What does this fold into?
Amino acid sequence: MSLEGQVAVITGASAGIGAATARLLHDAGMKLLISARREDRLKQMADELPGATWLAGDITDPALPQQLIDKALAEFGQVDVVFNNAGVILRTLIEEADIDAICRMVRINTESAFRLIYTALQHFKQVGKGHLVNTSSILGTKVRPTVGAYAGTKYAIEALSESLRLELAKTDIAVSCVEPGLVLTELHDDWDEHPKDFMGIESPLMPEDVARCVKFVLEQPMHVRIPRLLVTPGEMEL
Ligand SMILES: NC(=O)c1ccc[n+]([C@@H]2O[C@H](COP(=O)([O-])OP(=O)(O)OC[C@H]3O[C@@H](n4cnc5c(N)ncnc54)[C@H](OP(=O)(O)O)[C@@H]3O)[C@@H](O)[C@H]2O)c1
It folds into this structure.
């Protein structure tokens, strides 16, 4: 199915998977509203992607999801796709756990994602069609020591998405989760050691690899649904 002329709202678009997906969907002819906190990056991306517009904001602001839908409708007259992608990761030993930082991650990865999910789906139900794609993780399907809290945020996305998929069966509204393994982005920049080193992965996924998965999910005709797409580096053993 051609994506030409469709409109997408993309969160977490200032870096990594969100930025790569914005570029690829723009190349496919989609009209984009990109969002994240870093305004300078959004401006620069919008300059690179003619026709794209941006709205800077913190995803934990409860007003942002509706503002995103409203701005996309005002600019483009329709919203066909919401790519719910903004996220952070924390890795911690029990003894060192900063509970407030964990709860902030839960607010970003789960509470704010849930708000955007419901806001997007309310719009899609009004117009009778649309596609919501969530960036989950391989850690939305299995756990490892020290990243259980992060995995919990992604398991929550998986559970809600599966329930919504069932609720929306027999409609033209699709819900998908993309579940990447290790991707080389800024996500782990503040870690003491990069996971590719302690996991022994020389060739992690690149953001563009995940972007192609998102595009593939979106290109399917409406009778073909991809509720979950797991994508890993070839070397990933965990
Ligand atoms: N990298 C991996 O190995 C991997 C694997 C599986 C899943 N994921 C998931 O992929 C998604 C994208 O991550 P990435 O790997 O592309 O990381 P990234 O390069 O760090 O990008 C994260 C994006 O989220 C935005 N963001 C973070 N906190 C935000 C907030 N409070 N409000 C608004 N935007 C916020 C960031 O923008 P600003 O800082 O400008 O706000 C940035 O655009 C996340 O959901 C992550 O959990 C990543």
